[in-house]
């Protein structure tokens, strides 16, 4: 079922979202000082391609630098990405068939707001990642 949902997601909005995140990642990597955000964009792009069956966790070794970087990201890009996910999620939830895809957009809001210090892991692998906050 996850594979079917991921394939439909890929066609409806996943491919376009991933391309947007990759473009943002390339721009961030070109501007050398923003490379950490560029790498986070690439991680989110992979998550945007195939979100069902995966979840986002906070890394236990994320420190103050991740927090400060997330504040900068939130001000310049995170809030706009979150608004986009909320808009698409609400639009998809209007139809019965789109509800799982709308929920996937809502699931991506926390990582789009604060991507540094986060990791994307398989959904059923909580025991394999001790120390991570779920």
Topology:
Elements: H1 2-30, H2 35-49, E1 54-58, H3 64-93, H4 99-107, H5 109-113, E2 118-122
Antiparallel strand pairs: 1-2
Description:
This protein is mainly α and 134 residues long. The chain has one domain (2-125). It is built from 5 helices and 2 strands. Strands 1-2 form a two-stranded antiparallel sheet. Helix 1 (2-30) packs antiparallel against helix 2 and helix 3 (64-93) packs antiparallel against helix 4 (99-107). It is globular. The chain starts with a helix and ends in a 12-residue tail after the last strand.
Features:
134 residues, mainly alpha, two-stranded antiparallel sheet, 66% helix, 7% strand, YccF domain-containing protein, transmembrane helix, Inner_membrane_protein
How much helical structure, as a percent, in the residues?
A: 55-70%
Enumerate the strands of the largest sheet in spatial order, edge to edge or round the barrel: 1-2
Mean of residue pLDDT values: 87
How many β strands by DSSP? Answer: 2
Distance between the termini: 23 Å
Q: Shape, please? A: globular
Q: Which spans have pLDDT < 50 for at least 5 consecutive residues?
A: none
Tell me the strand percentage band. 5-15%
* Number of helices in the DSSP assignment: 5
**Quaternary organisation:** single chain
Number of domains: 1
> What characterizes the major β-sheet?
2 strands, antiparallel
What is the CA-based Rg, rounded?
A: 15 Å
Given helix and strand content, the structural type is: mainly alpha
Helix-strand topology string:
HHEHHHE
Keywords: Membrane, Transmembrane, Transmembrane helix
Protein name: YccF domain-containing protein
Transmembrane segments: 62-83, 89-106
Domain Inner membrane component: 4-54, 69-118
């Amino acid at each position: 079922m996850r594979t079917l949902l991921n394939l439909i997601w890929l066609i409806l909005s996943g491919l376009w979202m991933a391309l947007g995140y990759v473009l943002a990642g390339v721009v961030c990597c070109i501007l050398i000082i923003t490379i950490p955000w560029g790498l986070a964009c690439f991680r989110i792009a992979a998550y945007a391609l195939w979100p069902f069956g995966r979840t986002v966790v906070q890394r236990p070794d994320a420190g103050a630098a991740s927090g400060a970087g997330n504040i900068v990201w939130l001000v310049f890009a995170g809030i706009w990405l979150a608004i986009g996910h909320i808009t698409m999620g609400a639009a998809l939830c209007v139809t019965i068939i789109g509800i799982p895809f709308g929920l996937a957009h809502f699931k991506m809001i926390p990582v789009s707001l604060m991507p540094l210090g986060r990791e994307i892991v398989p959904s059923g692998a909580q025991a394999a990642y001790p120390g991570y906050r779920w």
